[in-house]
Every structure is written in structure tokens, then in C-alpha cells.
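Q: Given only this backbone (364 positions), what sequence would you predict?
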């Protein structure tokens, strides 16, 4: 699921999550991938018959009407969409005794593998909410002899788990200590520090190993190789180490640098694709500024002229602005990409107003 799909799904879920029925009158239906829609329609028609037994007249009417609207909507489809279908219907009228039956549907960005029908005071949204959570992740470990950090990369977001400092003495030894004894003390302290880092990584990464696509390790100097090659990480996790990178820092900056320097192994990942397109924009802005525009009015003008090749929208935009510019971009034949605010480049886009474009041709 890319950022644009995630944004649309989150907006859909948030809209429906605000709706509350006065009684158990909101209908939720999940249709799995490949399932016969005619069977779903037949089931809903049976539920209409069952709803006739609801004692409260208003609730009975709302449920039956919601099912009817849902059935009509489903008949618009020739077949079940590739990933299945989630469909919802219910009364959203603010005034008691009034009826305003609405129906919503979405083809989820991930395959639905189950069938469900529910009538309740709220819509059944948990399956869609679960899709918004990044299941797959990369483990991140950065370390030197002073500091160590363990984190997870989920989509474009770096989730820091631990920031640890070591008790390893500095290189200058206290008076009276032999160099051999001092070196041995440093070696023991470093060994204990690596064990602490590995203990955190083992505790956090092993429970999610099925969803762990790989582990990236980075740091300045030879410390990272000593850590990876030593008997610190669990053997199953050692097998998941897919990159060991030289980086200049530890801490938050080091984690970001590790991800940036690992593009060779992350080239298919969302975070890398976002960074690449944003870097293209900033490079053009610096070297050939006539080939890019930013700001609502300038981007709008370029879209209306059909001059926009790629429209980049920050996920921090309001729903109104996002919808307006997405529609304008689609009409003008532009590639539209929603950019998260989890990366450095995504934050820079937000600071530019959240709306920028790479042009097909220079506007005079």
C-alpha cells in the first residue's frame, strides 16, 4: 500500500468512524476477493426479511432501507473487485425521526479473505484499520562504543525503540593504569554494551520475525562489524541482516542516515520511492527552477495549463485541498503522489506548503 492509498483509506475510515446509529441500524458488509456478488445480494435480501421482525418501527425501516440501498449499489458491479469489497449503509440524519440513508463502498488496498455481515450502532471498521498498520518492517540498529539505537522502519516511518549509552571508558586512561589492563576494561565494557543492544533487538524483533523483511546495521568505524559477527544477536535474526553500512552518526540522525544509505536494498520500498521523487524536485528547484512550481496558486495555474508531469501532495493537507488538487491532477493527466511527513524530504514539502509540481514544459 502506497501513501496515496493509505491516505484515502484513512480518510474513508475516519469519516465512517464518526457516524453513530441511534439503534443497531448501521450495516457493514465485507465481500472477500473472488466471491460471487450474487450470493451476497441474496444474503442481504434474506436479511431484509429477517429485519421485518425488528420491533421498533423506525429501526426496522432504517435497516430495510439501508439493505435496499446496499443491494442497488452492489448491482452496479459486474464482478467483485480484485481485492474484494467493503460496503456500508445507514441513516445519517441528525434529527430524530428523519431518514437520510447513505451508502459507502471501497475496494481495499489489500486482499480481503473473509466474509462478514453486521448490523450495529457503529460500522465494523477494524479490518480496514488493521490495513492502515504497517505489518511488514525492517529492523534498524546503529551503534558505536558510546551510543546504540534500535528501531523499526514501517513504511516511511522510523519508530525508535531504544536509545542506549554505554559505560565504555574513553581512550585516555587514568593515571597508574597499564595500557593492557585499560584495553581489557574497555573490551569488557564494550562486550556488555553490545549484549544490551542485542537483548533489546532480540526482544523486539523475534516476536515479529515473520513480518521482518530484514535488519539494517550501521555505525562509524568497525564497531558494527564486531557486533554483527559476534555472538550477540539471536541466530535467526543474524540471518535477517541484509546490510551493514558505514554511517557517521548514531541517534536519530544515524537511523535516518542508515535508511538513506540502504537504498540499494530498499529500492522497492515506499520510503525510497518517496525520497527519490522529492530529491528530484529539490534538485530541479536548485539547478533548473523553471521546471518546478510550488504553492497553491502557481501549481493550480500549471495544472490548468496541462504543464504538470508529477504533482506531489503532502499528507498533511486538509481533506478539501487534497481532494481538490487530486481531482485537478487527474483531469490534467498528471501523475499524483501523496508524500508522507515521516521523512526529511516529506517534512520539507510540508514546510513549502504541501503542494509542489514537476513540470512537463516550462511555463512562460
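A: Predicted residues:
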Amino acid at each position: 500500500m502506497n501513501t496515496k492509498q493509505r491516505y484515502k483509506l484513512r480518510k474513508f475510515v475516519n469519516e465512517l468512524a464518526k457516524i453513530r446509529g441511534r439503534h443497531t441500524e448501521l450495516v457493514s458488509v465485507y465481500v472477500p476477493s473472488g466471491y460471487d456478488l450474487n450470493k451476497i445480494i441474496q444474503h442481504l435480501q434474506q436479511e431484509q426479511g429477517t429485519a421485518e421482525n425488528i420491533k421498533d418501527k423506525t429501526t426496522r425501516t432504517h435497516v430495510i432501507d439501508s439493505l435496499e440501498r446496499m443491494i442497488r449499489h452492489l448491482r452496479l458491479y459486474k464482478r467483485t473487485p480484485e481485492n474484494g469489497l467493503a460496503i456500508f449503509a445507514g441513516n445519517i440524519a441528525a434529527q430524530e425521526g428523519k431518514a437520510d440513508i447513505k451508502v459507502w463502498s471501497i475496494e481495499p488496498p489489500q486482499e480481503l479473505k473473509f466474509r462478514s455481515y453486521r448490523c450495529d450502532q457503529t460500522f465494523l471498521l477494524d479490518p480496514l484499520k488493521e490495513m492502515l498498520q504497517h505489518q511488514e518492517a525492517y529492523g534498524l540498529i546503529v551503534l558505536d562504543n558510546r551510543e546504540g539505537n534500535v528501531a523499526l522502519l514501517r513504511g516511511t516511518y522510523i519508530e525508535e525503540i531504544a536509545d542506549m549509552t554505554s559505560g565504555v571508558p574513553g581512550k585516555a586512561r587514568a593515571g597508574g593504569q597499564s595500557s593492557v589492563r585499560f584495553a581489557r576494561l574497555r573490551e569488557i565494557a564494550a562486550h556488555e554494551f553490545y549484549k544490551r543492544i542485542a537483548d533489546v533487538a532480540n526482544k523486539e524483533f523475534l516476536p515479529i520475525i515473520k513480518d521482518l523483511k530484514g535488519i539494517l546495521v550501521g555505525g562509524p568505524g568497525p564497531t558494527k562489524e564486531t557486533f554483527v559477527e559476534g555472538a550477540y544477536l539471536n541466530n535467526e535474526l543474524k540471518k535477517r541482516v541484509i546490510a551493514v553500512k558505514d554511517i557517521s552518526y548514531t541517534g536519530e540522525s544515524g537511523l535516518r542516515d542508515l535508511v538513506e544509505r540502504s537504498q540499494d536494498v530498499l529500492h522497492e520500498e515506499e520510503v525510497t520511492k518517496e525520497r527519490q521523487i522529492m530529491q528530484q524536485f529539490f534538485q530541479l528547484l536548485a539547478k533548473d527552477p523553471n521546471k518546478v512550481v510550488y504553492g497553491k496558486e502557481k501549481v493550480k495555474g500549471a495544472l490548468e495549463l496541462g504543464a504538470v508531469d508529477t504533482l506531489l501532495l503532502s499528507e498533511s493537507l486538509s481533506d478539501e485541498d487534497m481532494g481538490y488538487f487530486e481531482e485537478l491532477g487527474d483531469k490534467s493527466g498528471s501523475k499524483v503522489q501523496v508524500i508522507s511527513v515521516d521523512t526529511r524530504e516529506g517534512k520539507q514539502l510540508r514546510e513549502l506548503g504541501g503542494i509542489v509540481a514537476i513540470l512537463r514544459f516550462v511555463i512562460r
